[in-house]
Amino acid sequence: MSIFRWLSPVHLLRVFESKTYVERIDLIFWAAVGAASWVLLWHLATLARTWFLERGESAFTHLESRKSPNYVAWLSLPTMVVVVLFWLGYRTHLDSLVAPADSYDIQVLSERGTWAFTYPTGKRSKGDLVVPVARPVRLIMSSKDAVHGLAIPELRLQQLAIPGRYSTLWFNIPNQRSLSTRCTDGCDPRSKAEPKVLAVDESHFDAWLATNQKLASATSVK
Amino acid sequence: MRNGEANARVESLPLFTEPSSISGAMSSRDVLRRSAIAGLSTVLLALSVVAATSEIYYFTLRAEVQKKRGTFENALLLADQLRDNGRLDRYQWVTQSQGVLRIPLSLAKTLTIADYQKTTKTPSAEGGNVITGSTHAAIGTPP
What we know:
The structure holds two protein chains of two kinds. Chain A is of the alpha+beta class. Chain A folds into two domains: 3-97; 104-215, Immunoglobulin-like. In chain A, 38% of the residues lie in helices and 23% in strands. Chain A contains five helices and eleven strands; from the N terminus they run ααααβββββββββββα. Chain A has helices spanning 3-7, 9-18, 21-52, 69-97, 202-210; strands at 104-111, 114-118, 124-125, 129-132, 137-143, 148-152, 157-161, 167-171, 177-179, 182-185, 197-200. In chain A, helix 3 runs antiparallel to helix 4. Chain A starts with a helix and ends in a 12-residue tail after the last helix. Chain B is mainly alpha-helical. Chain B has six helices and two strands, in the order H-H-H-H-E-E-H-H. Chain B has helices spanning 2-11, 19-22, 28-69, 75-84, 105-121, 133-139, and strands at 92-95, 100-102. Chain B has a two-stranded antiparallel ribbon. In chain B, a hairpin with a 4-residue loop joins strand 1 and strand 2 (100-102). The longest helix of chain B is centred in the middle third of the chain and has 42 residues, at 28-69. The N and C termini of chain B lie far apart (92 Å). In chain B, 0% of the residues are buried. The model of chain B is unreliable at 123-131 (pLDDT under 50).
């Protein structure tokens, strides 16, 4: 594989698009942290050069001429980095806004820090959120009393349930697992209602939907 | 001689120059004119940036929805399209055999509120969307 292929923006975009939502969010986060650290290091190095080598002469004089290559580079390189980071973040944000057409819709209603999940079959669960694996799941959220926030840290997702309107959140969990959630807004310190997200395979999910069985974890379904 | 040279130099200055170098040589009328141009350009630029950002957001969101869901399920847009087709502002049979009728949106709102007020006073089994005998009496017989 040629190194030039890796330098091509089209190739990099394809690699980015092939990653999962979580991988993309992490990549953008660390790229932003890296870019900021690089700018900080550049400044510190320039200051260090002034203090220790040039004994008081300004190290920034080379930036004063607006035609100097340093000035152009100092302006254009960070601008390009910011534009690229913005575009990648914006694409990822749009992706998280719109759920695929074949997603499995679950109504979510919050009240006093507790969460009630209503499935398309009419089944209502006040415990954990049980979802099918390898299938896009869309939560259609609303609230009865006040604004409540639900976060699923391992999926890098968070959404607010707001009275009088609907908000959505979608995800696709590829394998059987159990994820923890966090209350992020309007939390009641007395209630420890942080339901787990249990991703189970399709047959177990259907069986669970048909019965009143309570799942302890995603792997407890046999 | 020197004053003349200075004035000629000031006249050849571009629109945007360091204020300290021109303010002394400019008349108050010129200052006002340039300030007005600068202010107007700023407002126009700001409005264009806001409009462009909003358009780009709308366009990209629409493209994303069309890519994933095939249609653009924007309630406001749908209402606009229905209004354009006249379906929200007219009477029309939906299925005449079953007696399902389309009525103007404004009337539907009034009837829904009236139904709601009635049901909150005396709860009944009737749903809010069902066209009842009283509804027919209120809107008249369909054409």
